[in-house]
Design goal:
- By secondary structure, this protein is mainly alpha-helical.
- It has 2 domains: about 30 residues; about 30 residues, no CATH class.
- The chain is built from 3 helices and no strands.
- α1 packs across α2 and α1 packs across α3.
- The longest helix has about 35 residues.
- The model has no long low-confidence stretch (mean pLDDT about 85).
Length: about 70
């Protein structure tokens, strides 16, 4: 009976970490798909990184994101 106090928390931690990883990957993919179609999100992200994109750079960034294929599993 004592081993339950050790095994159950470890199994719970592992299941939670794996589940959190897959939820994070799913969320990130959805955000990237949204960003491909929304130039304002790309502009906002660029400003957060300290860049100010002009129209030509913006269209180039959109084309790069549209041409990039996200791997499906």
């Amino acid at each position: 009976m004592e081993w339950y106090n050790i095994v159950i928390p470890i199994v719970t931690l592992i299941v939670g970490a794996v589940g959190g990883f897959f939820v994070g990957v799913f969320y990130l993919r959805k955000q990237l798909e949204k960003m491909q179609n929304d130039p304002e999100m790309i502009q906002r992200m660029a400003k957060q990184m300290g860049y100010n994109l002009n129209k030509q750079q913006m269209s180039r960034a959109q084309n790069m994101m549209k041409n990039q294929k996200l791997p499906r599993k």
